[in-house]
Automatic annotation (TrEMBL):
Residues in LysM domain copies: 72-116
Entry keyword set: Membrane, Transmembrane, Transmembrane helix
Matches recorded under InterPro entries: Lamin_tail_dom (IPR001322), Lamin_tail_dom_sf (IPR036415), LysM (IPR018392), LysM_dom_sf (IPR036779)
Domain LTD residues, every copy: 139-252
Membrane-spanning parts: 7-28
Protein name: LysM peptidoglycan-binding domain-containing protein
UniProt xrefs under CDD domains: LysM
Pfam families, alphabetized: LTD (PF00932), LysM (PF01476)
Length: 252
């Protein structure tokens, strides 16, 4: 569109805008006066009836929760005591202690689970008493009485003298009855002494007392020394439990 053709539209827009502004100013100047002569017209409200169009909600089947038979548990927090727990649940201190098997009301720990007997202390059902079966006793093996008769123990030999790895004193029970050697001792001339523990030397059997270190067995005992002590001409002395010399042996 050319500028010449737009001039009428621009002028018309200016005129319309001017008229609107003047009308607004005129209304603004005369609005207070007009308010005094305004007549209130009654407004009639016509009631209308709203039809309930709501669709009834379909009932949803729900499962009725079964009563929970699990006991009420209180987790001990910092600052809790059995007294405060008793007051909190309105349950006597004695019932709480009895239900939880507590003997000292002052000893509980953080995180400990305390059963609260709301309905009273539960009655423990005693476990069925097991009927003991008759034990099957093994058939006793006849044994010879230890120490019966006169002991007859001899030092038979010194094996591997002056060789720590092989050195051992050999004892032999030449009698007909086993001999208890507890508190008997084996000695040399330099003051070394081996004290027998609870050892039984059976009739006709041998017992080796090794000088070196090792694990003892019914037939081999270990003195635990770190050097050989038996040399040619050395006297081996065997003493009984009273300390009396029972027999001697000279190393060949």
């Amino acid at each position: 569109m050319s500028a010449r053709k737009m001039i009428p539209f621009v002028l018309l827009n200016i005129v319309v805008s001017t008229v609107v502004v003047l009308a607004i100013l005129y209304w603004w100047d005369n609005r207070d006066g007009g308010a005094d002569t305004a007549v209130s017209l009654p407004t009639t409200v016509t009631p209308s009836f709203l039809q309930n169009t709501a669709v009834p909600q379909q009932e949803i089947a729900t499962n009725t929760p079964e009563p929970d038979d699990s006991p009420l548990i209180h987790i001990v927090q910092a600052g809790d005591t059995l007294g405060t727990i008793s007051t909190l649940y309105d349950v006597s201190l004695e019932d709480i202690m009895a239900e939880n098997g507590l003997t000292n009301a002052n000893i509980i720990s953080i995180g400990q689970q305390i059963i609260i007997p709301i309905a009273g202390v539960s009655t423990a059902v005693p476990p069925p008493t097991a009927v003991p079966e008759e034990p099957v006793l093994p058939t006793p093996v006849p044994t010879e009485p230890v120490g019966a008769g006169e002991p007859d123990v001899g030092i038979t030999a010194v094996i591997g003298p002056d060789q720590l790895a092989d050195e051992a004193v050999l004892l032999t029970n030449n009698g007909d009855a086993p001999i208890a050697l507890q508190n008997w001792s084996l000695q040399d001339a330099d003051g070394y002494e081996y004290l027998f523990a609870q050892v039984t030397l059976f009739a006709g059997s041998d017992l080796r007392i090794h000088t070196t270190v090792g694990s003892s067995s019914p037939t081999d005992l270990y003195w635990g020394l770190d050097e050989a002590i038996w040399v040619s001409g050395e006297v081996v002395t065997l003493r009984d439990s009273s300390g009396a010399i029972y027999t001697t042996f000279e190393v060949p």
